[in-house]
Known about the structure:
Layout: H1 4-7, H2 27-32, H3 34-39, H4 41-56, H5 63-88, H6 96-112, H7 117-141, H8 146-165, E1 170-171, H9 175-182, E2 184-185, E3 188-189, H10 190-208, H11 210-220, H12 222-227, H13 232-258, E4 260-261, H14 267-279, H15 292-310, H16 318-333
Antiparallel strand pairs: 1-4, 2-3
Helix pairs in contact: 4-15, 5-10, 5-13, 5-14, 5-15, 6-7, 6-8, 6-13, 7-8, 7-13, 9-13, 10-11, 11-13, 14-15, 14-16
Amino acid sequence: MTSPSSTAPERPPAEAVPPAEPGRPRLAATVRDVGFWAEWAAAIGLVVLVVVFQIANPTFLTLGNVSAMLTASAILIVLTLGQTFVIATGGIDLSVASTMTFAAVAFGLAFSAGAPVVACIAVALVAGALVGVVNGLLVGKGKIADFIVTLGTLSAASGAALVLSDGKPVTIVNRFLLRLSSTGLGVLGWSFLVAVVLAVVAHVVLFRTRFGTHVLAAGGSAEAATATGISVPRIKIAVYTIAGVLAGVAAVLLVARVGAAEPASNTSFLLNSVAAVVLGGVALTGGRATILGPVLGALLLTALTNGLTLLGVSPFYQPVAVGTVVVLAALLARFRR
């Protein structure tokens, strides 16, 4: 009697299959992947714009123009950082540009009263923080929709700036502010370096601290975050306050750049801050964020405006271009992983 093992047919040896390389898709598949283009929309768009504008106008990449673009982008980068924290929680701040204007007027009033520039900067930061706290309390504690709250503070902050300044700009001449806006390290102006430092700090706070984890958790699912002991209302107050303080910083950079504290509304910064965040890959529904992406988005929008100006395109068409970029970015967001 033979054993089953002795009568079983022998199986041919399996062919050697080369081990797969997880996480390394082939180049062709990657190029065809819409999600890849969506993830890197800001970086790819920035590179394409630089190439196109350089071909169209060789002065685009001159040291002087690059330095001017980086300095001009500093204000938008700072506002975008604050907007990123808010949108990461699933909210939105429509008042960032008006808060910046209000803080700039507060700076001008303190300066005209004879306060030193350091005190004027502190006044601007406090003014921005005040608007941010009001937004946070109404959204977090009052449970009012962020769109309605920040739309209201947008109007209130703009009106307060006009009332406090009587609608007149305050000319500001100060050596420190002049150096801040016109000097730096090579092509990197001090204003841009301030924005870069704040971006690094924002990255560390968002991805290396418990607070940042709570921000993303609150944006991902407020119910789940509450169940784990996270105070979502406090997180809301904190992120809107951060956005307000950063709007105060942007106000200081704006005053330094313009040389005056103007009560005029800067509504273009609102659209651009949201556009940069969307371009950068931050989910408008919350829970997913990045810092590098919005910074690249801000640089892309600044390069777009600068390039169109160099080509002699009317300023009336520039908002059309920005709006088109926003819609395309929102469309690409559907394909992000």
